[in-house]
Structure formats: structure tokens, C-alpha cells
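Lecture 7, part B: from sequences to assemblies.

Below are the input chains for today's worked example.
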Amino acid sequence: MSSRTASPAPLIDLRRVVKVYDGLGGRVTALKGMDLQVFPGEFLVVTGKSGSGKTTLVNVITALDRLTSGEAWVAEAPIHSYGPEKAAHWRGETLGVVFQTFELLPTLTVLQNVMLPMDFAQHLPVREQARRAMHLLEQVGIAEHARKLPAGLSGGQQQRLSIARAMANDPPLLVADEPTGSLDSVTAAAVIDLFEELRAQGRTIVMVTHDLDIARRGSRTVTLSDGMLVGSPGEAVHA
Amino acid sequence: MLRARWYKVLHDLLGSKTRTVLIVLSMAVGLFAVGIILSARAILTEGLAQAFASIKPSSGVVHTAELFDEGFIEAVRSMPNVQEADARRSLMARVETAPGTWKNLTLFVVADYNDIRVNRISPQSGAWPPPDREVLIERAAMAVIGAQVGDIVTIKLPDDTERDVRVAGVTHDPAQMPAQIDGTPYGYISFETLDWFGQPFGFNELHVVSDRPEDKAWSQRVVNQVKAKAERAGYTIPMTMTADPGQLPMDDVLQGILLLMGFLGLMSLGLSVFLMINTISALLAQQKRQIGMMKAVGGRTVQILGMYLVMVLLYGAAALALAIPFGTAGARSLSRGMATYFNFDLLSMDVPPQTILVQLAIGLVLPVLASLIPFLSGLRISPAEAMSSYTMGRGRFGLSWFDRLISGANLWFTRGLPVRSLLLSLRNTFRSKGRLALTLITLTLGSATFISVFNVRASLTSTVDDMMQWFACDIYITFERAYRGDEVEMQALNVPGVTQTDIMLQLPARRVRPDGSESGMLYLFAPTVGQQALISSPAIVSGRYLLPEDQNAIVVPTGFLLDEPDLQLGGDVVMKLYGRERTFTIVGTFVGTSYLHMFFVNYNYLARLTDRAGETDSLLAITAAHDVQSVAATSRRLEEHLQDVGLRVDTVSTMQDERAQAEVIFDVIVSLLLAMALLLALVGGLGLMGTMSINVLERTREIGVLRAIGASNRAVAQVFILEAVGIGVLSWFLGGLLAVPMTKVLNTALGAAMLGQPLSYAFSMQGLWLWLAAVIVLSVAASFIPARNVTRLTVREVLAYE
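Predicted structure of the full complex, as C-alpha cells:
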């Protein structure tokens, strides 16, 4: 395991983050005053049992959900203060998200799925978007399927597509929530290879998984239990 | 090359064809209903007014007892306030429609059929003008007398002169009450033919157009001036009639129809609005996860909203493309049917642009607004929640006290219910309460309107029953002159089949208003009053019926008070009888139309007033058997016997004839109501089908889960069918309740337009049960078809469904 890059400015800085949900069984505190820092170039793996708060942590880092209290700074942006509209815009510019269930648009082709975040960000003209999307598909190895609908791809190919989409706007940060959860071990290993390649290109990666074999592939691992960080094998824990 | 997001819009539209068809159809039926009703209303309002104006309608008609010639017409034409005048001769006759069966016929004689200046008559087919010794028949009357062009008919005048006359052609005379309404056909002959009938030359009807025909009060004054001139010239004026400017002979019915159409148009509009909100919110609920994902990859609200707005605009445009042409065609066909009833030809069938604009607004603007509501409320949910698998399907069931209640955990009696069908359906029904509320509002409105339409129909029948209450006999005969009452009754009782008789006097009258102007012709009926009297009372609305000791008491129809608003119960009304003014006190009002004014006064008082004590000009008879054939046979025997003993019979009617005539007035409204009920059933039914089908499609993944855990296709279909039937039956129940006040409002408005008082309320169980059957069939079809389609997919395909 490599140590984190010595950089004074963390890319992700969570300060006393609390997230409370109103559930069927009453109020549930999913994150209990969590502090966490992730530095540029890290491949942070978050592990923990089901219900430990892993997905909530991803939702907080990606501003997909709002905090109950505390502060969340990502790429120097105070996302804890962002409304849904600003958060969406910020996400499109700053990070890519990869989900366990891929969350692809079934009615768009593989190529169009990758073009969609570029369309929302409105950085490039349409033809340039298509060129870049094609390039990303080549990078993840599914360029020959560009004209197919997602339903025509295997699970591994869909996850590669999901990663290509996450890279669409060339974000410095990639957040993945159980990206291998729906894949067999060989395909899962290939997806992690892809993440390592992306990290080698200088991106920061945060990945949630409950698979300890995969967890070992990260540059740092933290473990969540009952909404709190409880330890990190061989590494410092910011708790 | 399009941007990626627009590909999504296109693929969503074209990829889910079933969903697109359902959404477009749901929107189109609402728009179609709005279009057909608003367009037909506009076509009728404009078209009938134009058509009526084209015949140059008279401001009033002055009838004379004596005949006048062209010289008097010219004199009237030269009067300063008379824009135009023309004259006709009219005479009552009878036509033999079957051997031994005679029908009243009004014959008109015009000097020059090619130069009719007022109340123009036009040729339709056959000869024009009427050849000598031949007759032309008004087109609406052809069916009434059952004749064809070329047939020979026998016409008899009151003096028993009979002639066989050939029907040479068909005319169109829109100024007359359509023959199917008042039961009196119209014939047109030349003066040569009149001479052949042994009648002298001369006119007895003066049709006048004032120089300000749009001003009713002024026109009334001008008609009175003409009447005064005629009286000064020595003519007796038994009656004058002044028309309301631009009003057709059946204007009350037309107003009733337009009112009804306006109401139904509004209801369809409401239905359409709710259908659209419901459909669009269902669509957005289905897309909730995808919306969450798009936000996750950087999609901003305005961008995502833009995509869905374009999508709903395209749905709206497709629905409009269907609804506008079909609605316009339907409106034209409906208007044509109505115009036929009113015996008019519509000069223009153009649908006014405003109607199309209303449809465009509903079809394009409303879906956009409708999509804003669920979209904006959806903004409150974070992308994480939108994509959460815990909210599979719709809503977050289980959080509210109501959810916990219907979960059955606390209800002992639900513990024995089969979870698969009843409980699951019940809980599913209440999962998305907002959508359920929308669906229920839509369906309840549809149900209530459908049931109300049947209720109004039942109320019209009930009103006819009330209107006919006065006609408490089987046969009603009028004589050409008065005879001794006891002699008439004795002769009638000699006829086999006649068991009871009564006598009545009737005479025309006019109301003299405080300003000296006079109303149109009214009929005073003076039946005997007391224990033995056949007419015990018409359907009294306010006040009371006549009493034996009454002197100048009068019972007036409600419709008359509508026309003469200065009159009221307990007040006095001045009537002109035989040229003399008499004051009566209004003691009661009864259910009666405004186009056939019958008034009831005491026989003894009127007989004394007119110096006809003991005399009668009408006979009422009750027969031993009351079926149509027996009454008709007895009526023929009675008429023949009375003729044989020298009593000259003028008209003979039976209860069935009178009832049919009273009903025919409402026939067009009943037909319209039935057509509208069908239309509403279509709108409500397709709305129900659309909503239910979208609900099933939306829960496709859930169906996959049910099947994955071992549910059979039948069990899955059962859950959805029970849910749909549950919603349908609930809307039927609520609709039935809402129909009560809705019917009352409709009855009040329709009755006020036609009768001057609400229709007699009746609740139609037929409509209630019919709609229940329709709702159950539609609910089953709406949920079964999509559920069956989904169960045909493999579990893997269903679980992958988005």
C-alpha cells in the first residue's frame, strides 16, 4: 500500500458530518460526526458492513444528498451549503459517479449515454462531444458497442460504460459505490484495473466496497461501522 | 446531430410505444370531448342565428278574423315604422294519414311564392310554386303525415269539403314550429287551389318587420300600430304575436341545449385537465429514477425540465392532431343533427378559431403546467432518494398513520384476508395518495357527470309526467262551436267503451300588459271543478289549484312567468277575452312550457263571463281500457258517433298523442344527453384505462419481484385487477354522491331556461348501475391487458425494465 500524497490541501475534507434519515423504524443516524480527508491522487477504499453508512458517505461526497449537520468541502467547494441546483452543476464539473446498478439511460445508445453529462455541462459542441465520448469508450474497451443500447451489453460492459460516462467531463474526482457489486470476480478485477489506470493518470478515486480482496487494491482503506470510521488497516484514520 | 438529451426525449417517445399511445389517447379523448362540445355549441349558436336571419323573420304577426286584400298589405307597407310586410292566408284542415285516421293540418296560401318578403319559404324538392289543385308539404311535416312526393292525400276543411290532392313537392318554412314538435303538419297551396276548395280569396295573417327589428319593445309597438290600423279599417284581431328578436320558434329548447352543452363542455374541460395532470404525473413518477440519475451526472433542473416539457408538448401535439379533426367532424355531425331537429339548414359549419385556440391551449399549455406540478414537487427529493431502490415503484408507503392502519397490523379482521390479493391491492391503491387523489377526482367527475346526465334524462321524463298530470282522461275532443254540455256528455256515454266524461270550455286570450301591449296567444282552459271533475289538478309548483267557489282565479304555467316577469303568484293579470279586458288573480303555478301557454280558470266563472252557461266546446272522456289500441278504437267510434249526431268535431287527441307530443319537445335534449353520456363514458373510460395502464407499466419491476418469489401470472394479474376495480368502484360511489347536487344544479338551470322552474328531480338507478358495470369492465380491461403483457416477459426482462 502506498501512502497518501503529501499535499497540504485535501481534495475531500469532511468535518463532523452528521446525516440523519427518517425511516420506517424511526430516525436513523447514518453518519455520526464523521471527519475524513482525501488527498489528490489517492485511491481511497471505504469498506464496512451493510448498513454501516458507506452509501450515505458517497451521497455526501457527491452532494447527491444534503447533510444534517457538519461541513463537506470537495475540491475546495463548500458543498454542504449547496442547493440541489448548484450541486448538480458542480457535480457535472467536478466529479464522476459510478453506481453498483450502473444507472444507465436505457433509451440512449452507449455513445449517447457518455455524451449526456457533456451535454448538460455544455462545454463542447455536439460533434466534439461525440469524438470525446468515442475516445472514452475506446479507453474502457467498448468502442465497438457505441451504437448499441445498454441492454445489449454484458454487466461488465455496462459498468465500463458507466465509468466512461463518469469520465465524460474529465473530472479530477471519481466516486464509485460498489462498482463491482453486480459483477463476477474476473470482470470486477478488470474494472478495478481500469480505476488504477485512471488513478495513474492523476485522478483521485473514492470507492465503496464490502469486498476485502478488492479493498486491498486501493492506496488507502478506511472502514465504517455504525456511521463512524473505526480503523484503516495499516493506514492513518482521520476520525 | 442532436444533443444527447433530445435523443432521450425521442427514444422515450418512440421506444415505449404502448405508453406513448396510452398517454396520447388519454389526452386526446379529453380534448376531443372539449372540442366536439365547444365547436358544436359555437356552430349552432352562430349557424342557427344566421340561418334564421336569412329568412327575414317577422317582428310580429297580426291575425284578422275577416279577410283582407293586397290593398291593405300596401297600406301597411307604407306605414312609417314598418320596414316590410307580407301576408298569408292560413286555414285549419285535416288530412287523412290512414283510412279513417285524420290529422290536423294547417294550410297556407301565398299570393306569389317567388316574392315572399317576410318569413321566406323555400323549395326543397318537386314542384315550386305549388301547382293548381296540388299541395306542397313542409319538409319536417312529411314524416308526420307519412307521405311521399307524388302521393295523393285527402284533405278535409271544417265545412266538410273534401279534396284528393297530390303532394307535388316539399318546402322549407323555418318560421314555423317544426311539425314533429307541435304535431301539426303544414301544407302550401295556391289561391286557385283554395278556390277549388270552395274558399273565398283573401288573407288573414299579416307578417310585419319593424324598422328596428332588433328592439323587441319597439317592434311590439310597431305591431300594435299595425293592429290598431287594422282595427280602424274594420278588421277584428283575435290575436297578434310578437317574436323575440332573432329567436327561433324553439328558442327555449335551443337555450336549454346550449346551456347543457356549456355545462358538459366545462365538465369535459375539467376531466381533460385532471386526465392530463394525472397522465403527466404518472409519466414523471415512472421517470423518477432516471431524473435522479441525470441530476447525478450534472443535469440541472432547467435542463431536465426542458426535456420533459418538450416531451409533454409533443404528446400534446400528437393528441391535438387526433382530437382537432375528429372533434371538428363530430361537432359538425352533432350540429347537423340538431339543426335537423330545429328544421334549419346551417349556412356555415365553420368552427370558430377561438374553439381551436381553446383546444390548443388545453393541449399544449395545460400539459406543460401539469408537468410542472409533479416536477417541482419532485425537486424536493434528493437524487440519492430518487435512485434509492427502497422506493421501488411509487411513493414511500408505510410512513403515515393511514398506511399503518391499512397495513392491517392493528385490525384483527384483516388478519384472515389473503395477503396476495386483497391486502396487497388495498395497500397498493393507497401507496401514492397524490396520484390516487388525482385519479379519483378524474374518475369521480366522469362518474358524476355520466350519472347526472341519466338523472337529467329521468328528470325530463318526470317533468313530462307532471306536465301531463292535467290530462286526466284518455280522449280529448274539441268542437268547432259550443254545444250543450249535458247533450254532448250523454251522446259520448252512449258510445261503447266510454265510461266517464267531463266538459270544458276553452278560448284564446291575450295578456294585456300595464303599458297596453299584448302578449301572444294564450289558451284559457275552463274545466269543471269539484269532486266529479276529471281534471283534478295539473302539477302545482306554487300556490294552489282552482276551488269550486273560485271566481276570477287563474292557474298559470311556470313558463309564462318566465316570459312575463312582472307577474307573480297572488298578483293580478289582465286578459283580453273576446275583445274585453278581464282581471284574474293568479292563485297557483303549474309545470308548463313557455311555448304552449295553457291557463286554468273555473268553468262556472268563465261560462258566466262569456254567456255560455251549460255549454261546452271540449269533451274529456275516460275509456274502459287504457291501452293504445283500445283508446284509439274508442276514440274513432266516439268521433264517428258525435259526427253522426251532428256535433262537428274539430280535433281529437288521445293521452298517448299528447304525451308523445310533450315528450318530443324534450326528445332532442334526451338524445343529446345520451350522446354526451356516451362521450363522457368514452372520456372517463379511456381516462381510467390510461391511468390504470400507466400504473401497471410503472410497477413492471414490482411484477418481476412478485413473479421472482413465485407468484403465478394469474396471481399477479389479480392484484392489479383488484386494485383497478377498487379505484373504479370508489370513484363510482363518490360520483353517485356528487351526482345528486350536480343533477340539482343542472335541473335548475335547464328548467329555468325552458320552464321557468327546476325540472322535477329524479335519480336514475339505470344510470347508476350502467356506470358501475362500465367502470368494472373498464377497470378489468385497463389493468388486465398491460398486466398480461408484462407477465409475458421473462423475470429478467421485467426486473431490468425502466
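Note for the exam: The two ends of chain B are 26 Å apart (CA to CA). Keep this in mind when comparing with the next example.
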